[in-house]
Every structure is written in structure tokens, then in C-alpha cells.
Amino acid sequence: MEDLIFRHMQTVRELTLKCLDDTPEEITGIVPAGYRNNIHWNFGHILFIQERLALEVAGEEMELPEKYRSYFSAGTKPSDWAGAPPTLVEIREALDTQTDRLQKLRAGRLDEPLPEPFTNRMGLTFRMAGETLLFSFYHEALHLETIRQMRKRIRADE
């Protein structure tokens, strides 16, 4: 079952990378009407949240630089950014390598209990490391769809 979970993680990430590669960089900084974030933020948020759910919530240190938290954690938005965020090239590289890295770090450990139950912003409580990793796939897909909707909105507004 673990192999299936990690294959699914890779499939979801391949879809995200394809979307990033298919998105013109010149539109990634636009915050469309009705949204509080831009496409750039969404890609960085996908990266940061999967790292957080796979490692930090399980009591382990994240390997992303700390600056990712200030730019891409839940509740942040580009209008509050101080300084330049990680570039899309940096984010893409990190997204591309994250799945293999997390698979190596979490292999054989998905059934470990979390140091303490984790309740996310949606009110869902997780108790096992594998639960938070599985939820990160759903989270990534939600933001991937948001990015697709933002691209449509930006094209319609042009």
C-alpha cells in the first residue's frame, strides 16, 4: 500500500509541475478579482504545506528555508510580502525534488503516530503521519484547481 501512496504523490506532483510549466510567468503575479493570492503564491503554498504536513507536523524539521513560511504559509498573501519571494524557478526545482525526498524520509513510517493530534484549518484532526501526507494530496489538488480557475479569470479579463 505504501508504494501506491507514494506513486499517487508523484502523479499529483506531475500534474502540478505540468500546470506550472504551462502557465505563462507574466501572469503569475496577478491577483484576479475575487482572489486574495496570485498563482505564484499558490505554487509556493503547495510546496510549503506538503513539507509542513509531511515533516513538521510529524515532529521533524522541514528542509525548506524558513523564508518559505513567511511567504507561503496559510493566511499569507502577496500584498504582505516584504522583499522578493522565492522565484518560480526555485519553487519549481523544490517541487520537482520534494516528492523523492519526502518518500525517502517517510518510507516505512506512514503508520507512526504524530507527536500530538493535528487539527487543520478545516477542522479535520489527524493522528498518524500517513494521514497528513494523504491529506496533502487533496490540498495540492485544491490549489491546482484554484490555479486553473485563476488562469481562466486572467485570460477573460485581458
TrEMBL record:
One protein family per Pfam: DinB_2
Superkingdom: Bacteria
Residue ranges of every copy of the DinB-like domain listed in the record: 10-147
InterPro entries: DinB-like, DinB/YfiT-like
Annotated protein name in UniProt: DinB superfamily protein
Source organism: Bhargavaea cecembensis
Lineage of the species this protein comes from: Bacteria, Bacillati, Bacillota, Bacilli, Bacillales
